[in-house]
Amino acid sequence: MTESKCIINLKSVQKMGADKDINNEQYEGTIATRGDKKYLSYKRPTEDGLINCLISFSRKSLTLTQKGKLNSKLELIPGQETLNVYSTQVGTLDLRLYTRHYSLVETKDLIKILLDYDIITGTDPIQTAMDIVVELK
Questions:
Q1: Smallest Cα–Cα separation from 65: which of 56, 98, 87?
Q2: What is the pLDDT of residues 71-84, one digit of tens each?
Q3: Would you tell me how many other CB atoms lie within 10 Å of the CB of residue 102?
Q4: What share of the chain is helix, strand, coil (3-state, %, to 5)?
């Protein structure tokens, strides 16, 4: 498995009722390929220290794993609901996600991943759209 450096651009839009939250983040990371899967790794700074992040993906699904003061593993499979675990210093939360859409486009210099999913939180889910653009070096 060979690794190369990359720039990871993340944009997420979350809507719950009339509220809307937009986040844009950029990280330097590495990308590696093993079999039909690719692995993006990067470190995300937080108030509590660095979180090690790993996005593993193929044409069929995507998994986001975070380790540090915050630990989580989110699995996104189009058309399916998944049960995921999100752990912080104050406790553990089970999160149900329903993935409405997932697409992956790869070119020589760029990888673009589009996700639309719901975080199921009772009567009103949090609708989330995430664009991940990876600039290959």
A1: 56
A2: 999 999 999 999 99
A3: 20
A4: 0, 80, 20
